[in-house]
Structures are given as structure tokens and as C-alpha cells.
């Protein structure tokens, strides 16, 4: 067996980020083979993941990144406690999530992200190593990648506490509109608006029909003792209110409640000499 020297322990510690005693034990178990010791530390992380599989992951961080003017990602990494979520190791792993999301060849799907490799290492290995350090269950909450096709811009906003963030794609009539300061500012404001208001969908046509039927049923039940024609009018009015509160384009803009989001976007595009439309958005939070 190779001698377990301090320099060997330090080398493994730098590779794995584990404590000196854990590295020493792993090297002793591996007979001084540093690659096998690294594997032992990773198995430790996998064992911790399995043992804590039923634990809730209500803490974590939301991250975003733009690789160029055409591609942006948003994702969340979740853990059990706020203490771990604020640790340097967890923050570093969350920032790597954004790097892996940019590198991933799929635009969504946690499993696709976990299997993506950067510099020969899968993101699933990054999480396993993190778990072996923190002892907490850790998982990717979600991720999305937007790739801009044609003229437009992608705007992102992550709240200062890094617990919630949004990404929104806006198509424009030409590149001059997309590059205008007015449109960039408005796009960022709309991303912030989405983070604050949590819309269910872009417009009413995008809402799940089951959700619409559920809401209509609830409103109808509230006034079931009234005449049928009155019930219909009341339900219709309540659904208008529901759409105004839950459809992004119909929501009152948080920075100017005299206008809807659709009106604010149209005004910004007009001042830039063209038109614009919101194509899609993603909003992730933890906790």
C-alpha cells in the first residue's frame, strides 16, 4: 500500500473539496490510490442522497446566465436548509448549474441537464460531490433554455434573495427595436413584473382548460341560488377578473397600474419604431 502522506491527502482534498479526515479515510480504504479514493468519496455522496431521499428540499437558489444575445438559461438548485443554500460550496454548484444548462443540447428536462458533461464531468457528479460535503439532499428543481430565433431579445431577472427568478423572450419587428434601450429596459421590467406577480400563463388561450373549468365551477357554486342568467353573468365577470390577475398580457403592470403589460410592451416598441410581442416566459422559485 502506498504511504498516505500529508501531501497526498491535501491533493485529494483539493480535488474533492472534502475534509482532511474524510480524504485520509478514503485514501486508507483505497490503499493510497487517489482515483479510487475519489470514487469512494463520490459513493459516500450517493449513499447520503439515497438515505435522505424522502427529505424536503425547500431551500436553494435560482440562477440565470446568457451565453450570447441569442441564448439564455434559468434554473434552480434545491437543498434542505438555508444554511447550506448560503454556503460557498452550494453557491458554486448553483453557478455551475447555469454553465451546464448552457452546455446542454436540450432546452428542458432535468435528466438531460444531469447527464450533460463539462470538462469530462457530469452535473450529476457535481451534485454527488456536493452532497458528500454538506450531508443534505440536493437536487435540480428545474431548468429552461431559450434560444432566440429571428429578431428579439431575452431578458432575465433574479430577485436579490436568489429564491425566485424569471426569463422572458420577446420577439420584435426588427433588430433596431430589439437593440433599443427602451426595449431592453422594458423587457427587464417585465421580467421583474413576472417574478413579482407569478402569472399562470401568457394569455387566456394558454391556460389549461381544466383550470378554467375548475374556476367557473367554483364561481357558479358560489351563486348557485340565483337565476341561471344571473349566474352566467356573474361567472363571466369573475372570469374576466381571473384572466386579468393571472394572464401576463392582461395583468396591470407593477410599475404603472394604469396600463396592462401588453400596453406597456406596445408603447415601448412603438417608441423604438416598431412592434413587439412576448413569446414565452419561465418563472422558477424555491421555498
Write the layout of secondary structure elements.
Layout: H1 6-16, H2 20-29, H3 34-51, E1 59-66, E2 71-79, H4 82-85, H5 88-103, H6 110-114, E3 117-118, E4 121-122, H7 123-134, E5 139-147, E6 152-158, E7 164-172, H8 175-179, H9 181-197, H10 209-222, H11 228-246, E8 252-253, E9 256-260, H12 261-271, E10 276-285
Antiparallel strand pairs: 1-2, 2-5, 3-4, 6-7, 7-10, 8-9
End-to-end CA span? 48 Å
Question: What would CATH call the homologous superfamily of the largest domain?
Answer: Elongation factor Ts, dimerisation domain
Q: Any idea of the CATH topology of the largest domain?
A: Tetrahydropterin Synthase, Chain A
Percent of sequence in beta strands: 15-25%
Calculate Rg over CA atoms.
24 Å
SSE-based structural type: alpha+beta
CATH hierarchy: architecture of the largest domain? 2-Layer Sandwich
Strand count: 10
- The overall average pLDDT, rounded, is 89
Low-pLDDT sequence parts: none
* Major sheet size, sense and barrel closure: 3 strands, antiparallel
Amino acid at each position: 500500500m502506498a504511504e498516505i502522506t500529508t501531501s497526498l491527502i491535501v491533493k485529494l482534498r483539493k480535488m474533492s473539496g472534502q475534509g482532511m479526515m474524510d480524504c485520509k479515510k478514503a485514501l486508507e480504504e483505497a490503499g493510497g490510490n487517489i482515483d479510487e479514493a475519489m470514487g469512494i468519496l463520490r459513493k459516500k455522496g450517493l449513499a447520503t442522497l439515497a438515505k435522505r431521499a424522502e427529505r424536503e428540499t425547500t431551500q436553494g437558489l435560482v440562477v440565470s446566465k446568457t451565453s450570447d444575445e441569442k441564448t439564455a438559461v434559468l434554473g434552480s438548485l434545491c437543498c434542505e436548509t438555508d444554511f447550506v443554500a448560503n454556503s460557498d460550496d452550494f453557491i458554486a454548484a448553483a453557478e455551475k448549474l447555469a454553465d451546464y444548462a448552457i452546455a446542454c443540447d436540450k432546452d428542458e428536462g432535468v435528466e438531460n441537464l444531469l447527464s450533460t458533461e463539462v470538462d469530462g464531468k457530469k452535473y450529476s457528479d457535481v451534485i454527488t460531490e456536493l452532497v458528500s460535503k454538506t450531508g443534505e439532499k440536493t437536487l435540480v428543481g428545474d431548468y429552461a433554455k431559450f434560444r432566440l430565433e429571428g429578431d428579439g431579445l431575452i431578458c432575465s431577472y433574479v430577485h436579490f434573495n436568489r429564491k425566485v427568478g424569471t426569463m422572458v423572450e420577446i420577439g420584435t419587428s426588427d433588430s433596431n427595436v430589439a437593440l433599443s434601450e427602451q426595449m431592453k429596459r422594458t423587457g427587464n421590467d417585465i421580467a421583474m413584473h413576472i417574478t413579482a406577480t407569478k402569472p399562470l400563463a401568457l394569455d387566456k388561450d394558454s391556460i389549461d382548460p381544466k383550470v378554467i373549468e375548475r374556476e367557473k365551477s367554483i364561481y357558479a357554486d358560489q351563486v348557485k341560488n340565483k337565476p341561471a342568467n344571473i349566474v352566467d353573468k356573474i361567472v363571466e365577470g369573475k372570469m374576466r377578473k381571473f384572466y386579468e390577475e393571472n394572464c401576463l398580457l392582461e395583468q396591470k403592470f407593477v410599475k404603472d397600474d394604469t396600463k396592462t403589460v401588453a400596453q406597456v410592451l406596445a408603447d415601448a416598441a412603438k417608441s423604438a419604431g416598431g412592434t413587439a410581442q412576448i413569446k414565452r416566459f419561465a418563472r422558477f422559485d424555491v421555498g
